[in-house]
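ok new one. same drill as before - structure tokens go in, u give me an amino acid for every spot. 326 of them this time. try not to just spam alanines like last time pls lmao
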């Protein structure tokens, strides 16, 4: 009888688990961002194709089985958001900061073309906001009402990078407004509610590999423990490959660069990646692939060779072959 009860209890628990988890391969997500914190993996996501309600999170212990989504940020009342993009959560000095790009209704901010090649019909108010919480589960509240980059700029994909104790936002100035998309950075005030000096440009989109397009997407930084080098990954469209993850290295080891020309880290119609370490020490790249209406979260093991970063065949998704990447 006791054995029967135990088996029934295990079976019931398994059913509950099955009902409340999803496999990584089964749910659609763009721009996946993983925070590995205190034994739990947190996956932040938005649904930009279905409106601008906010940001949700899933949790996992193994990166394959994920909990149901729960809200961590709701767009403040009165903000005319039509989409929320590319949420990231960073832990800094004991607090958690959510960076998310909000697209707003046309006419809610003075966004004008900044290049003769930019088309007014493509311009929509868009910029990265910062929210703060005491827990990775939120609730996240805005540190200020509005984006931190200039509101008259069309910007997206802000990320956090800390150098010598100084936090910076690195973000993309949209190709829609400037034609040749720019990668920009600015130092953040201690409360993350403003920039302490005007944004500077690191490089432009076409200043990449041969065949690069005009898009700048998804910057993320990695400091190598092997050689101290500073790497940036970001995404662009490259002729012959589609949407890619590109890899740059700072010649000085500093954010201000200069940044050496790119290598292609991932080239199989997927991108907007970030890097994180598993609790057993593996360095992983996550991104969405394909770059279409069937996007899935992919995971690839990365080797830090001491000279560069490269995809390796490991326990997660297999890197694409040369023929698959075209």
């Amino acid at each position: 009888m006791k054995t029967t009860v135990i088996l029934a209890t295990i079976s019931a628990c398994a059913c509950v688990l099955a009902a409340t988890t999803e496999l990584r391969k089964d749910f659609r997500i763009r721009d996946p961002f993983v925070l590995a914190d205190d034994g739990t993996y947190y996956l932040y996501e938005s649904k930009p194709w279905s409106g601008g309600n906010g940001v949700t999170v899933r949790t996992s212990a193994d990166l394959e089985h994920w909990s149901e989504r729960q809200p961590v940020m709701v767009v403040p009342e009165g903000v005319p958001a039509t989409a929320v993009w590319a949420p990231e959560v960073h832990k800094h000095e004991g607090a958690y900061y959510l960076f998310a790009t909000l697209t707003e209704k046309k006419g809610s901010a003075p966004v004008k073309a900044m290049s003769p090649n930019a088309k007014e019909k493509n311009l929509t108010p868009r910029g990265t906001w910062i929210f703060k919480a005491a827990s990775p589960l939120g609730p996240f509240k805005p540190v200020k009402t509005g984006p931190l980059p200039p509101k008259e700029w069309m910007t997206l994909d802000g990320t956090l990078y800390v150098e010598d104790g100084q936090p910076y936002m690195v973000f993309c100035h949209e190709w829609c407004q400037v034609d040749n998309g720019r990668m920009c950075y600015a130092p953040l005030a201690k409360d993350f509610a403003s920039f302490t000096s005007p944004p500077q440009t690191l490089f432009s989109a076409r200043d990449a590999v041969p065949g690069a397009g005009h898009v700048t997407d998804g910057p993320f930084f990695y400091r190598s423990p092997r050689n101290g080098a500073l790497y940036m990954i970001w995404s662009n469209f490259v002729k012959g490959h589609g949407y890619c993850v590109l890899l740059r290295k700072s010649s000085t080891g500093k954010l201000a660069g200069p940044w050496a020309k790119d290598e292609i880290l991932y080239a199989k119609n997927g991108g907007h990646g970030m890097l994180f370490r598993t609790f057993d020490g593996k360095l992983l790249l996550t991104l969405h692939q394909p770059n279409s209406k069937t996007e899935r979260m992919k995971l690839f093991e990365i080797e830090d060779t001491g000279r560069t970063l490269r995809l390796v065949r490991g326990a997660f998704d297999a890197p694409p072959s040369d023929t698959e990447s075209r």
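The longest helix spans residues 2-20. and btw The first strand starts at residue 21 and ends at 23.
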